[in-house]
Every structure is written in structure tokens, then in C-alpha cells.
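C-alpha cells please, single chain.
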Amino acid sequence: MFRVVVPADFGDREVVWNVTAHGRTDSAYGSLRVDYVVDKLMKMMDIGGVGVAESELANMAPVVRVEGAAERTVRVGEPLALQAFASDDGIPTRMPSMRWPPVKHNAWGLRVSWYVYRGDGDQVTFEPEQVKVYPDYRGNSPWTPGWMPPVPPADGRFPVTATFREPGTYVLRVMAHDGGSISNEPVTVNVTAD
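Here you go.
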């Protein structure tokens, strides 16, 4: 995420950001046009179909925070204990994903997952296995028909152990999602060979 300050007389012009990687150039466009505005309601409807009912408009993003240092060091193969605290306002109410074929509407209710944000995700394992943060209709995913978010622990704490198979610098994130809004918090992990 980044911000661009534009002059007061910017009008209907666009800001274009070009990124070239691996021989391919992609562009991102931004403007002040109303149809480009992404507000809270737009985000909720896009990621979970929330915001249709009047009561859902009051939905607030879940609160999530990593307990402990924001940067850690661990050796290859050594389990790293991590813990996050998460809470939610209960909007939208818990409800399973029941539609087939799957659509972008997924299950509602607080769920928390740790995932690899930067680094080789194939080199990291989590215990217990984490709910997928991407669409996967085969299982352990809010996009799986009938999937229901697990009941959150009474103390709001979500522990996990991460084990790394290769040295390097990884950024892990913990995501709290209520089916309509998302919050993330990062932890940087420096993994050494010895």
C-alpha cells in the first residue's frame, strides 16, 4: 500500500505506476474519480458479500495483534512459537458457506490464520494447520461449501508454531477476517542456518 499526494487542481487526471519484473511490465492506475473510490462498504461486499443488510453496515474490522516482538530470529528446523490475540464485533453473524458452485461469498464469523507474506511459503509449515487465506474449494478454506469458521477460543489467543526448512528472511502475517472485513499484523523472522 502506498499514498500519492496530488495537487489541488489534479482534476480527472490519472497517476500511473509501472512495475517491470521478469521482463513484464504491469501498470496500476489511480484517480480521484468516484468510480475508483474503494470504501469500507465496497471492501466488505467484494470480499464477503457483507453490507447488504442494514445491520451489516455497522461491521468493524476485527482487532488483531501479535503478542511479543515484531522481529524474531530462529534456526532452520527449530519450531518458533507465535501467538496472536484477535477479537471481533460479531457482525456479520456466524454463517457457513453453502452455495454451489462456489462464489466469492464465503463463510462469515471470525477466523484467524497465520500465513507466509514474504519468503518461500513452501519452506514453512504451521502447526496446527492454518485455514487457507485464498480461495480453495477442496477443503480447509472459507470458499469450501459448508465450511464453518472454528469457534474462537474464549481468551481470544491464537497460538501457532512455525518451522522453517531454509534460511532467509521471512515475513509472516496473522490475518483476522470476519467474512466482511480483514485486519493483518506482520512478524519478521530471520532464519539462520545454524
